Amino acid sequence: MKKLYLLIIVLSIFSCKNNKSEVISKQEKPQQKQHVIKNFQTIIDSANVEGAILVYDLNKNTYYSNDFKWIKKGFLPASTFKIPNSIIALESGLVKNDSALFIWKGEKRGMKVWEQDLTLKQAFHFSCVPCYQDIARRIGVKRMKSYVKKLNYGNIKVDSTSIAMFWLEGASQINQLQQIDFLKRFYASELPISRNTETIMKRMMLIEETETYKISGKTGWSIRNGNNNGWFVGYVESESNVYFFATNIIPKKDFNMNMFPLIRKEITYKALKKMNLIKEK
C-alpha cells in the first residue's frame, strides 16, 4: 500500500512538471500582433506604385503594414538572395571573407560599375549579378539546395538549367513575412552558420550608421514576363530595440522606371521615419 501511495505521489509530481513546462512553452510563444498603418498606403500611393511595407517590432512582437494580404504573396527574391548566397559562399569555403576578389576579365557587363575587379563586399554593395552568378555556379545545384533547405529560406527552385539565374527568373518565391523571419533568425544567431560568417555578413549588410541607429539590408529587382518587382529588406538597430522591414513594390503603368532603383529605399525610409525609428536628415 505504501509503495502504491509513493507511486501516486511520484506520478503526480511528474504530471505537475509536465503541465508547468507546457505553460512555460506557451508563454515563450506569445501571439504576434498586427496593426494596419494607413500612412504606409499613402506613401506607396504617392510613389505611383503598388505593394506593401512590412515592419516588425521585435520587443513588441508586432507587425505593421498597409496590406496584410500582399505581404503573403510570393515573388522572386531577386538580389535579396545575395544575402543567403553570400552566406553559402562563406560557409562552403568558396570565399574566405568579404575581401575575396572577383577578377573582371574585360567582358561587357550590364552596369559600368560591375566592369572592374570587385571584392565580395563591393560585389554585394553594387549588386553585381555576374559575380554572384559565378558564386552560384561554383556552389552547384546539390550544395545550393542543401544550404537553402538548412537556412529555411523561402521556396527556392533550382536545377542545372537555372543555377545561375533562379533568384531572378523561374519559379522561386519568397514573401515579406518569410524575408523578415529569415532576417530575425540571422540577427538572433539562430541560423546554422558560423559566428565568423555572421560577423562578415553583418559588416557587409550595413548601409547607414548614426549615433542613434544603424540600418542594414539589401535591395532586389526582378523582371518576369515584362513585370517589374522591387524589394528592400533589412533591419534597424537602436539602443533599445531592433525593427525588421521588408518592402515589396510593383510600378504602375505610367511609372518612370528610371526612379525604380531609388524608390524601394525611399518608400521604406519614409515609413521608418513615420514610425520615428529613424530621423529626417
Q: What is the CATH level 1 assignment?
A: Alpha Beta
Distance between the termini: 79 Å
Name given to the CATH architecture = 3-Layer(aba) Sandwich
CATH superfamily: DD-peptidase/beta-lactamase superfamily
Q: Give the count of helical stretches.
A: 9
- Which regions contain 5 or more consecutive residues with pLDDT less than 50? 1-17, 19-27
Q: Taking all residues together, what is the mean pLDDT?
A: 91
Portion in helices: 25-40%
Q: How many domains, in number, for the residues?
A: 1
The chain-level structural class is alpha+beta
Q: What would you call the shape?
A: globular
Give me the CATH fold name.
Answer: Beta-lactamase
Radius of gyration, Cα only, in angstroms?
Answer: 22 Å
Task: Describe this structure as you would to a colleague.
This protein is of the alpha+beta class. It has one domain: DD-peptidase/beta-lactamase superfamily (Beta-lactamase, 3-Layer(aba) Sandwich). The protein has helices at residues 2-28, 38-46, 82-91, 120-125, 129-139, 141-151, 176-187, 195-205, 260-274; strands at 33-36, 49-57, 62-65, 101-102, 118-119, 206-209, 213-224, 227-238, 242-251. The strands form 2 sheets. A 7-stranded mixed sheet has the order 1-3-2-9-8-7-6, sandwiched between helices. Strands 4-5 form a two-stranded antiparallel ribbon. Helix 2 runs antiparallel to helix 9, helix 3 (82-91) packs across helix 5 (129-139) and helix 3 runs antiparallel to helix 8 (195-205). The chain is globular. It starts with a helix and ends in a 7-residue tail after the last helix. The relative contact order is 0.16.
